[in-house]
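Trying the structure run again after the queue cleared.
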Amino acid sequence: MGTRRLFDEHRQGRTGRIAGSEGSGETRHQSLSGCRRSAAGRDQPPRWRQVLSRHGRPAFLHRHRYQHPARLVEDARRESATRDRRVKDALERRRVHSGAPWEAQVGYCRAIRTGKHISVSGTAPVAQGGGVHAPGNAYEQAKRCLQIALAALAELGAGAADVVRTRMFVTDISQWSAFGRAHTEIFAEHPPATTMVEVAALIDPDMLIEIEVDAICE
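Done. Tokens:
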């Protein structure tokens, strides 16, 4: 008897639910709408809503549905070539030598470019024919240092506007105004960060200043 009663109750419950759905068009419509929303991903958690698109289809499959396989391969090759070129540019090093006698003796270059970054070694006021340019003249020596540094930048594809930092090492800080005037004439429109510090001496007693330059260019 117990088994028969449970079977009858189960059958009546199913009938009641079916009858209830058929008796109320609004209830049945809401039930079907809920099923459709769930299938379309509207009732899914937020992270799944981003993955599912129309008709519950994964978004990435729908996006590439009409693209030819050959085009997908070509796009992948193009992206790979672009990535390889960026890595190569970032790792490639280009050097510039000015011919100063100390470069070979000490083992350095005038400037080096690695990717977008350029570093110019400490540049002294060396005259074109050798020796020290304008001994005793702070302004002229600073100007000469910057001319040599900018020439090295130009060989590496940069200019004064690309300079982001300079460092001035001077033997007489009391002449800071003369050193600064030459610096201002070059970088007035694009002033970089800078430092001026007094040192005990430079490689030649007649040298009053030496300048380092850092640049970043596209």
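The longest helix spans residues 69-91. Worth checking whether this holds up in the mutant runs.
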